[in-house]
Amino acid sequence: MSVALPLGTTLGQISDVVMGTVSPQERSLPVAGLAPLNRAQSGDIGFCASAKAARDLSSFRGSALLLSESLESLAPDGVPRVLVVDAYLGYAKISQWIAQARTASRPLEAAAIHPSALIDPSASIGIGVVLGPGVVIGARTRIGAGTALRANVVVQDDCEIGERCLVHPGTVIGADGFGFAPSPQGWVKIEQLGRVRIGDDVEIGANCAIDRGALEDTVIGRGTKLDNLIQVAHNVVIGEDCAIAGCVGIAGSAVIGNRVQVGGGAGILGHLSICDDVIISSMTLVASSIHEPGFYTGVYPLAPHTQWEKSAAALRHLPDLRRRLRALEQNQSKDS
Amino acid sequence: MSVALPLGTTLGQISDVVMGTVSPQERSLPVAGLAPLNRAQSGDIGFCASAKAARDLSSFRGSALLLSESLESLAPDGVPRVLVVDAYLGYAKISQWIAQARTASRPLEAAAIHPSALIDPSASIGIGVVLGPGVVIGARTRIGAGTALRANVVVQDDCEIGERCLVHPGTVIGADGFGFAPSPQGWVKIEQLGRVRIGDDVEIGANCAIDRGALEDTVIGRGTKLDNLIQVAHNVVIGEDCAIAGCVGIAGSAVIGNRVQVGGGAGILGHLSICDDVIISSMTLVASSIHEPGFYTGVYPLAPHTQWEKSAAALRHLPDLRRRLRALEQNQSKDS
Amino acid sequence: MSVALPLGTTLGQISDVVMGTVSPQERSLPVAGLAPLNRAQSGDIGFCASAKAARDLSSFRGSALLLSESLESLAPDGVPRVLVVDAYLGYAKISQWIAQARTASRPLEAAAIHPSALIDPSASIGIGVVLGPGVVIGARTRIGAGTALRANVVVQDDCEIGERCLVHPGTVIGADGFGFAPSPQGWVKIEQLGRVRIGDDVEIGANCAIDRGALEDTVIGRGTKLDNLIQVAHNVVIGEDCAIAGCVGIAGSAVIGNRVQVGGGAGILGHLSICDDVIISSMTLVASSIHEPGFYTGVYPLAPHTQWEKSAAALRHLPDLRRRLRALEQNQSKDS
Predict the structure, then answer these.
(1) Which residues of B are marked as active site?
(2) Angstrom distance (rounded) from CA C6 to CA C107
(3) Is A302 on the interface with C (CB under 8 A)?
(4) Is A108 strand, coil or helix?
(5) Cβ C233–B246 below 8 Å, yes or no?
(6) Phi and psi (nearest 5°) for C65?
(7) Which residues in A lie closer than 8 A to residue B314 (C-beta atoms)?
(8) Which of A38, A149, A168, A201 is the mutation pick for testing B, counting most B CBs within 10 A?
(9) How many of the other CB atoms lie within 10 Å of CB of B93?
(10) pLDDT at B109 over 60
(11) How far is Cα A127 from Cα A183, in angstroms, rounded to an integer?
């Protein structure tokens, strides 16, 4: 199964969209659909962006290839091709080109502000902003030009969202951070008086929660992308061009650098910092600051349950094992 | 505390609902409420479906029992009873019977489509569909007969939901998958051009996020049940009759078989497959494909914090321990 | 950056708000903003509530201090100060005082019930209840006096919420619990016939899901605070004055005591109990009952990925290591 390209698309047009190269005699070749390499059928252009994907080239059944230049030697002879530095980036550009063609043919769906969206009169809404049904924009909140908030997104008072951002349905921006002082009478609420400030070109998935700051602001830097169901607590500062996968939780006052990638379901404790260019594995807990770029992991390896039971039970005895091993070593060195 | 049965319910009616057996002289016995075994009071029927629950039979204070046949020998003499192959399934049927009676007495609550629901004119809505307040249905989306979408559910463009499905409030179906190509200028959006297709008899909990596919579709098979706050990423394919507990995250392009059960908070990485009849423990990360049916676990066992600190510290030295143990073994074998 | 205090605020007023002490000659000193210690600038009052924070006292640049009495000896001479038993609690009180002043100056934002909120005619709404846009209140549901439900909160039929509660946007209360009986034809729905009952002074974050009970009720006790994206399954009973951080999942029929604190992303399995005064670390799974107050942890420590790979691989051999160590010990004791 493939996604349809605009009617009449040629390989030359594809090459132009991706700023690639194609042989002159192949420019006029028609292509009907875009597909991953292993799903392409006759009429489709398949893209190949990695040596791993290239394993599927020998069984390729499509009509043309979008190929990273470095992989050209792996492609079967005789298949028309568009060459480009990075075929994955090329695929992204074609996907945008298809989406634009779809939108152009469905002008009603691009309607700017749905009549059921509620905008506080003191809010500031930029040019070309798209607000879906049920969106709520609080007092004094500013939404930058070209930003789209999908259905039922809530942005509370005094927040700022940059330009060309995209926020998916159900996400809540600017709810109170989780702040309480203990007292003999129970928890006493700390009113959350800060804001949320989100930079340009940020994308946030569905049903996330980005809390406002307590005294300072919660900040998400330019170009950072968040997946679904992510919790960003009060006073968190996330840098630029980060990518944070689904179900991640970031606790209060954590400071995250630029180009940090966080795997799904990971957790980041509060009041710590993570430097630039760190990669955190899925479901790993970051419990103290990370000062060196690199790839970090902390997850219990899966095993058949009975095998896990044995290793988990042994784990409790690990300090004891260490002690006994040391005793053996000392005994042995005494003997020798 | 028990849940009230319809006024005038007899043990004979209960037996008919669950397709069980009851002695003729007990058919006319009135029962007023349904309760778990250890909570039943005078007038209640309590259900007992497992040997573990049967431990509470000796202190049973209710008036009648719904009992799995295999457990009959454990029941105290003289307590009226309905016997059935599986009393848990019997309980499910009684719960449905109660719910139907409630709905019948409250016709207004069963109103089909709330006036505040927004349905794109190009969408297709089956017979008997129930849409709660604030529901949003996108362009060309199809909702099968008898399906109910509760308040504020959002189903975006071009999705398909089968018949007799139930989706709880706040869930978002068809938001963009998390797809970006790296480039020297930062992340470049990959438009998500696929759809979400959900089979018949699927239930999805509250505040979930089921993303649309990138080029292919995200698929949830017939009869599969999802709990709350679950993330299903783009291109994921989930088979039939699966049960996935709350807070689970499933990453992009994972393929999950039939009858797979996933415990709460578990994670499944992308681009892997899980075969039929696998059970994953809560908070376990599946990081590679599973080819054998079975029960898999990977979770760090809880301990008092100071004890955990010692075993976690020792864990870092585990490779070193192994090495030292091997050295000792070699020394010893040299000695002997 | 600081948060502005009401115009004309004096140190004497601050002292009165926090029920602290200030020297008579400093009462009339004006203060313009409230800030954490390390962010305070000229004109600000900074608060210092812990010995750890007190490290920043030497570089303090603000104009006055809100100080816990026990820390007074650490404060630099000559800085005007308000002394109080617990400066963190004092900070909470000032935050509330600022929030009240803001609300008083913006009466329109305090509007009680938004016209787009949908309230079933059989529901009962207390005095002074605030309902945001898109809120849905089901049949026979009762909302206590002074409670606020923010935008798009859904409370389904037959639920009870106490007085002075606060529920943040997108949270769903009273959706069906996840209950199905296995059958040869697949999962059979168990209708969820219980309710949700929430005590007074409870706060619940954004995009949570609090399920209704199956036969019994799901209960959240007075004064308990929940952060965002939390799953509370059917029949769960949570005590009073608990604090549960974001992304926590609590499975069905778990019973949690009073003053329990649960770290972000932790999981609690079903059908177990946790006694009073337990603290659970972030991302820890509670898989069996806890009967002793204390601090419990179970999380795999993070490491650079290559180092983790080695320790994780060794972990699988841990039972084998134990066996070999025992063999060595026995050999050695034979030798000696």
Answers:
(1) 234
(2) 16
(3) no
(4) helix
(5) yes
(6) -125, 140
(7) 318-319, 321-322
(8) A168
(9) 22
(10) no
(11) 48
Neighbours of C234 (CB within 10 A): 26
Chain C neighbours (≥3 Cβ pairs under 8 A) are A, B
Read off the pLDDT of residues C253-283 as tens digits, 9 standing for 90 and up: 999 999 999 999 999 999 999 999 999 999 9
Question: What residues in C contact B302, CB-CB < 8 Å?
Answer: 280, 284-287, 296-298
Residues contacting A322, CB < 8 A, separation 6+: B314, B317, B321
Quickly list H helices, A165-204.
Answer: none
Residues in chain A: 336
The 10 Å Cβ neighbour count of residue B118 is: 19
C207 touches chain A (CB under 8 A): yes
CB-based contact C89:A183 (threshold 8 Å): yes
Question: For C77, which DSSP code?
Answer: T
Answer yes or no: is pLDDT of C110 > 60. no
Q: Which of residues 84-123 of C touch B (CB under 8 A)?
A: 118
pTM summary value: 0.96
Give the pairing type, strands A303-304 and B294-297: antiparallel
Decide: C27 and C12 in contact? Cβ < 8 Å: yes
Chain A residues closer than 8 Å to C282 by CB: 251, 267, 269, 285, 287
Query: Minimal Cα–Cα distance from C281 to chain B, Å?
Result: 8
Q: Is the dihedral of CA B85, B88, B93, B94 positive or negative?
A: positive
Q: What is the DSSP letter of A10?
A: B
A278-280 and B64-68 beta bridge pairing = unpaired
pLDDT at B195 over 70: yes
Q: What is the pLDDT of residue A224?
A: 98
Helix extents (H) in B73-199? 87-105
Q: Do A169 and B154 touch (CB under 8 A)?
A: yes
Q: Would you call C234 a catalytic residue per the annotation?
A: yes
What is the model's pLDDT at position C332? 78
Closest chain B residue to A97, measured at CA = B191
Contact A210, A188 (CB under 8 A): no
Tell me the torsion sign for CA atoms C165, C170, C173, C179: negative
Token pair belonging to C237: 């009973």
What is the Cα–Cα distance from A131 to B93, expressed in whole angstroms?
A: 44
Give the integer Cα–Cα distance in Å for C175 and C189: 14
Looking up tokens 């039972």 gives: C319
Strand B225-226, strand B243-244: pairing: parallel
Q: Which chain C residues have a beta carbon less than 8 Å from that of B316?
A: 301, 303, 307, 311
- Helix%, strand%, coil% for chain B, nearest 5: 25, 25, 50
A300: closest chain C residue by CA: C300
Which of A167, A297, A328 is the best residue to mutate to test the C interface, defined by the most C CB atoms within 10 Å of its own CB?
A297
Phi and psi at residue A81, in whole multiples of 5°? -145, 150
User: Who among A109, A303, A329 is closest to B139 (CB)?
Assistant: A109
Task: Test C332 with B329 for CB contact under 8 angstroms.
Answer: no
**Could you tell me the two tokens for A13?**
């047009």
The amino acid occupying position A17 is V
E-strand ranges in C128-168 read 130-131, 136-137, 142-143, 148-149, 154-155, 160-161, 166-167
Residue in chain B closest to A226 (alpha carbons) equals B178
Q: Are residues A207 and B211, on separate chains, in Cβ contact within 8 Å?
A: no
**Using the 8-state DSSP alphabet, how is residue B237 labeled?**
E
User: What average pLDDT does this structure show over A226-254?
Assistant: 98
> Quick check: B135 contacting A, CB < 8 Å?
no
| Rg of chain A in Å (alpha carbons) | 26
Handedness of CA B137, B141, B145, B148 (dihedral sign): negative
Instruction: Name the residue in chain A with its Cα closest to that of C85.
Output: A183
Per residue in B222-249, pLDDT tens? 999 999 999 999 999 999 999 999 999 9
